[in-house]
Amino acid sequence: MTHPSGDSVVGSNSAVSIEAVVRAFVYGFAPVFNLPRVERFVTTGVGASSAVPFNSFSHPGGLAGPDDTFVSVKNDTICSIAQLDLGTGPLVMDVPDTAAVYFVLQFVDGWANNFAYIGKRATGTKAGRFVLVPPGWPGALPADATSIHCPTRIVSMVGRWGCDGLDDIGRARKLQQQISLSPLFANDSAGLPVPDPAVPDELMFWEKLRMYLQAFPPAPRNIALQQTFEPLGLLNAGPSPYANADPALAKLLVEGAAEARDRIEEALKSGAGARARNDWNQAFEFLDYNDFFEFGTIGSPEWRISENAKAIGVRAAAAMGGLWGSHGNEAPYTPICADSDGDQLTGDRRYTITLAPMPPVDAFWSITMYSMPHFHLVSNSIERYSIGDRTAGLVYGNDGSLTMTLSATEPSDPAARANWLPTPTGRFRPLLRMYSPRERVFDGSYVIPPIVKAEA
C-alpha cells in the first residue's frame, strides 16, 4: 500500500508524512477493528449472542440471521463465542466428543491472529481437556490438560458446530452445553483499556490504537516498525495527546485515516493480491499473516506470508472483510464481487451459477450472501441466507449439477425458486466456504464456475 503524496506536517517533535499516517493506520486497523467487537460481546451482545462476561460462553440458539450484524457472519454452522481475559490466570477448557461430526474451536488474539485450533481437522472429534495459558505465565499447569499458549491477554474463542439444518439444531445445542471453561484462580477480569472520552470522534481510532499498543505488545518482527509511530503520539503512555491535538497533526491524521481506509477497501475488493479465477478471489492465504503458531495451526512456508509489509496489509483487509475467519487449510473463504463480464454484482440484475461438480470437501460447503460494504446477511422473504450441500429442497439437474438463481426478486420458475439465493437490492458479495477442503481446491484442478447474468 503506497501513497502518491509527499506532504508532511511538523507535529510536536518531528515531520510527519501522510504516508507514515497511512502506514500506521493499516498496521493498527486489525486490533482497532477487532477489540471493540470483543467489547460488544461482553456488554451489549451481538444479535442472537447475548452479552456474557469475560471467560463465559455465549451460545446462540440457532443459525445466524440479519440481526447478527457481524462482518461476514456464518450462516452454515451453530456458533459458540467466548471472550477470554487471561489476566485472571490460566483457563481450563473441556471439549465434548462430537461423534465424528465436524466442529472447530478457533482462538484469535488481540491482533486478529488465528493462533490455535481445536477441532476435527486439528485434534479429531474425541473429548479433550486444554489449558489456555496467558503470556509469560510462570506458574504450574494441570498435568492432564494440553497447553495452548496465548500471545495476548485478551483472546476470542470462536466455536463452530456442524449442523445439518433446522432439524439438527437440537444435537448441536447439546454439544454447546457440554463445553466448559474453568479458571484456575478466582480473579476479576480487567477487561479492555478504556480510551479517553475527551478525544473527538475523528481521532478516536488513534486513541484506541494508542491504548491497545500499550496493552498488547507486538510480535517481535514489528517492534522496530511500531517505534516509528512515536511522532504520531501513538507511543505516549500518559494523558491522551489527541484530546487537544496540534491542529495540523490532527488534520493529517484524519486525512491519512480516510486514505488508508480507502486503500484497505480497494485491496479487499480486488482480493488483496489473491489469485482470481472466474472472478472468484481464491484468497487461500487471506489468514496467513500469523505472527504466532500454536496448537492446531500449520506454520509451514506455504501457509505463511513471509513479507511483513504484505502480511500487515492482508491482516487489515481480512479484519475488514472476514474478521475471525478460518485459515484456508481449515475452511477457505472465496468471495466474488463481479459477474462473468467483470461487472459489479447488484440487485438490479438476476444471475445464475451452475455447480458441476460440487466443491470437493470432506465436510460440507456453502455459498452465503452478503450486502456491501459492511458484509452483513441479507433480510429476505424466505429467510434463506445461504445455499449449500445440506440445504433441503434443492432441485438438481439430471447430470447432478446445481443451478442457483441470485436475485432480489423471487423467481417465477419453480426450479429457480427452489434454488433461489436472495440478494439485496444494492451491491452484494457472495462467499463460498469449503470445510475440510480436498487438495483439488488448492492445486487448481477444481475451478469454481462464474456467476453469469440471466436473461430478463
UniProtKB/TrEMBL annotation:
Which branch of life, at top level?
A: Bacteria
Where does the record locate the signal sequence feature?
Answer: none
Q: Which residues cross the membrane?
A: none
> Where's the DUF1214 domain?
333-438
One Pfam family matching this protein = DUF1254
Q: Where is the DUF1254 domain?
A: 54-183
Protein name stated in the entry: DUF1254 domain-containing protein
Q: Per the UniProt entry, what species is this protein from, by scientific name?
A: Rhodococcus xishaensis
Source lineage: Bacteria, Bacillati, Actinomycetota, Actinomycetes, Mycobacteriales
